[in-house]
Amino acid sequence: MTAIDQAGAVRPGEELDIAAVDRWLKAQDRSLLGQPTITQYSGGASNWTYRLEYRNRDLILRRPPAGTKAAGAHDMAREYFIQKNLKPVYPMVPDTVALCQDPSVIGCDFYVMERIAGIIPRANLSRDLDFTAPRVRELCLNVLDQLIALHQTDYQASGLDSLGKGAGYCKRQVDGWDARYEKSLTWNVPRFRSVRAWLRTNTPEDSRTCIIHNDWRFDNVVLSAREPTQVIGVLDWELATLGDPLMDLGTMLAYWVQADDNFMMRAARRQPTHLPGMLSRREVVDYYFGKTGLKTDNWVFYEVFGLFRLAVIIQQIYYRYHHKQTKNPAFGHFWLMVYALHRRCRRLIRRSGRA
Question: What is the rounded CA–CA span in Å between residue 265 and residue 44?
């Protein structure tokens, strides 16, 4: 089926020393046959992801990007152990194969996992799938149910007790993203002064503590090729931690672009949340609360935080473009999206009655 997600040619400058990787991998698994075909996935702006297709095994290799990295960023060992420990209690996680922390192999840490063959729903679903509105709704609910299942997973049984820093997750997140925005400011974007002050003033206590994904989007799930409404895998555990599940939900909804959103938001859409049959953001929240029993009288905080966090991520990318650290022309207009998110935050705060 053409809708199954495929990797492409390896990007120039991002080639793997495949001979070194092959030698190391075959020392871990002597059953591997032949030399692997190497391709690379184009999605994502963080870790580099490759497909290693042996005659008898289909594998994925994840490694950090080249260049100097901030302390704690692109931690391959952390990402590997999260998946390894989580798999027995949350089966949507890919099977891990091996972790390499020997810099003599390719000069950095990397890990290998099994490939989950399936469909990754990106900005637009393939026409081959012929999704009707009822099937889109089924897909939407199945994706939300997997997020709920993750939040209800027993993290103590998974051996991930030390993954987080304890109570105060919401406050740490507000403080952390506030500092990141201050460091990435350029002259042509709003300072978010009132939004940042409002978030600090209205930060709630943690609703509860659970495993959170921290980047839950449709393009981080894998769908069955046989039944494309069914989720068979969840990818990209780089940011997973122990934290407040409502923060995870708010972060997810920052990317949730509806058909009735304005032109700027629709132009930035990267998942198929605009389709007939998809739940609205309000319906998502109601569904989540109904299934989990969680409640809050301050939902707008989580929604505004998610939008502010997204604004910081976009501004950090634009900052690199502004200072000529990257030449990708796609980043040149990112400052306009920062303005759009600022307006949306301000509007939500006004409507909340908590301004």
Answer: 19
User: Rounded to whole angstroms, what are the CA distances from 158 to 123, 232, 237, 312?
Assistant: 33, 20, 15, 32
Question: How far, in Å, are 29, 194, 301 from residue 350 at the CA level?
Answer: 59, 11, 12
Instruction: List pLDDT tens digits, range 325-335.
Output: 877 788 899 99
Q: How far apart are CA 144 and CA 154, in angstroms?
A: 18
- Residues 184, 8: contact at Cβ < 8 Å? no
Tokens of 164: 């987080």
pLDDT digits (tens, 9 = 90+) for 239-292: 999 999 999 999 999 999 999 999 888 988 999 999 999 999 999 999 999 999
Structural domains in the chain, CATH included, are 18-114 (3.30.200.20), 127-352 (3.90.1200.10)
Contact (CB, 8 A) for 267 and 239: no
Contacts (Cβ under 8 Å, ≥6 apart) of 195: 304, 308, 342, 345, 346, 349
